[in-house]
Specification:
The protein is built from 10 helices and no strands. Helix 2 runs antiparallel to helix 10, helix 3 packs parallel to helix 7 and helix 5 packs antiparallel against helix 10. The two termini are about 35 Å apart. The model has no long low-confidence stretch (mean pLDDT about 80).
Length: about 220
């Protein structure tokens, strides 16, 4: 694979990563409401999902999935239902903001809560990415522009490009997470504002779920 191809791919990937969409919107909303580390763990989950799609594409399974209406629908509905459940939980969290702020005064309780939240957001990122049918279509439409399918090393080229895509997404989304969290750090100290931030997160998750269903 030529260096010029890799550079062109990375530039296109960075533009796509920065373009408005459900992934970057969820990273921003999570970072604003829960802090930058939760946003970074969402980012790691999203990138893990990209790597899952990369391995499926390299093995030819992604094309099989896209051509099977039943499998495609199963992925679509599972991802949407999961996000709707998370939206409901985020909506319910608005009622517990005062209690959560009190619990965070206890350092041990705060650490345990933080670790649980990190892994929860990491899992959410994985499901959002790996069960998003839009990403399947993206892989099938975007990657062929940079991969020569007549080459005997086509699977290796797909893995390299997929890994590069995931890596640059981690860097960009992590920067977005840190900036979003720092700009709104004081807001998270106010229980009333945290309540509305949780409502916004619920709305974002529900909107992403609906967009998946309408695909």
């Amino acid at each position: 694979m030529e260096i010029s191809t890799i550079i062109s791919f990375l530039l296109a990937a960075m533009l796509l990563t920065l373009s408005p969409g459900p992934d970057i919107l969820f990273v921003i909303s999570t970072s604003i409401s829960k802090g930058h580390w939760n946003g970074i763990f969402v980012t790691l989950g999203l990138s893990t999902g990209v790597l899952i799609h990369t391995m499926l594409a390299a093995g030819g399974l992604l094309l099989l999935l896209a051509n099977s209406e039943m499998l495609f629908s199963l992925v679509q509905y599972f991802g949407a239902i999961y996000l709707l459940i998370l939206a409901y939980k985020a909506w319910k969290e608005r009622e517990n903001t005062n209690l959560q702020i009190q619990l965070n005064n206890n350092q041990l309780t705060q650490k345990i809560t933080e670790v649980k939240q990190f892994w929860k957001h990491y899992r959410t990122g994985i499901v959002m990415s790996s069960c998003n049918p839009k990403l399947i279509i993206f892989f099938l439409a975007f990657f062929p522009q940079f991969v020569n399918f007549k080459d005997e090393n086509v699977a290796l080229h797909i893995i390299i490009l997929g890994t590069l895509f995931a890596f640059q997404a981690v860097i960009i989304y992590s920067i977005v997470a840190v900036i979003s969290a720092r700009l709104t750090n004081k807001l998270r100290q106010n229980s009333k504002i945290v309540k509305y931030l949780n409502i916004c997160t619920a709305i974002v998750l529900a909107a992403i779920a609906i967009s998946i269903l309408l695909l």
